[in-house]
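quick one before i forget lol
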Amino acid sequence: MDLWESGAAPTDAKVTVVTALVTAQHRNSKALGRRSWAYRGAVLLLLAEALTLVAAIAESSGS
């Protein structure tokens, strides 16, 4: 909005806005990628914990 008020050409304002949107989209994509890997790691740990628990229950009930 400051560009419009300062009298910049409409094309310059649009280029600035699009550049900002592309930059924000790139940052968002990186953040989602990190969160996705963190989620996958948490799922893997939970699966390992559940399998350990099942194995312990099976071992204790078998004796």
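fyi The CA atoms of residues 56 and 62 lie 10 Å apart.
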